[in-house]
Amino acid sequence: MLQILRSRTIKTLRIPLIFTSAWLSFYSTVITAADALEFDVGGLMFGDLYHVPSHHTLDGDNATGVVIRRIFLTSDIRYRDDWTGRFRFEAYHEGAFENYEFSHRIQDLAIGKKLAGHQISGGLIPTISFDLIEAFWGKRYLVRTAPDIQGIAARDLGVSAKGALTEAGTWSYRAMYGSSETWEADKNPHDKFMGAVTWRPTPDALVDFYVDHEARPGHFDRNTYQVFAAQRNDRYSLGLVYTNQDRQNDPPLELAALMGVAHINDKVDLITQIQRLFEPSVKGNDIAYLPFDPSASATNVVAGVEYRLSNQIFMTPNVVWTHYGVNPQGVRPKHDLHLRLTFFFNFE
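Request: output the structure for the sequence above.
Response:
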């Protein structure tokens, strides 16, 4: 069985691995003679060797395999200090257990400009519900942030603005309009208005308040309220997020998550994310890699030890455990347990 698995995996991964190796061999920065235009090319790749001793689905129960979850190829352009651009291509695994098929899409296609102390961006860009938390967390290769996992959009086709509200920068804002037009990584066919205000009492700490409104046909409008508090220093980073989304006639989304990283030394970090779903997962079994039973509330824990073999190569043995509450039928779904060795190659 292991021989068959190894053969299937090698055949399936050969093309993306060759493509990625060729791209990363050209990893470079090109600067014009006038030093005005900078062009960076890079990429990253991550995946898992996994075994699932227990799972609420038949497909997941006792599944074993190795999978490259994501391959990103990125080009960043900067013109002087005012203009920026990004193109990011993504090859990705769909997330099914013991399946090795790849899909692809354009994840980012954006242009930005600094204007009177503000940053204006447009195109296929990260949403402002995602950007601040993701930048703080920084461990997306291991696990996505809880709002992202549960369906709060990470990308949209639109325009955003961000900047300081006070001269000292203690207060700042972010605002974004997400268009109903859909293309590639953007899957949201509805207009969405987003706003956020961030307070930084010290350089190491912040509190972010986020809201959005998404109008949908019928009684299915969505209104999101989110609070994120975080602190970071040389020894650790710690963040707490609470997200509540009113979905009218659709089931509600309510969660809280604690994200922590402890820096043991220059080569080792301890990492954890604890996610509590107060309502059953609205995405349920449609979540790639970490599906949730859609009938019950849940507590999910991801914990690992990150070993940095170099500045570009990380190996992280980790455990993913999901415990469910009792559903309306009086049944507690079978808990999920994933044992993983996650690898991360970062050349960005």
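Residues 2-25 form the longest helix (24 residues).
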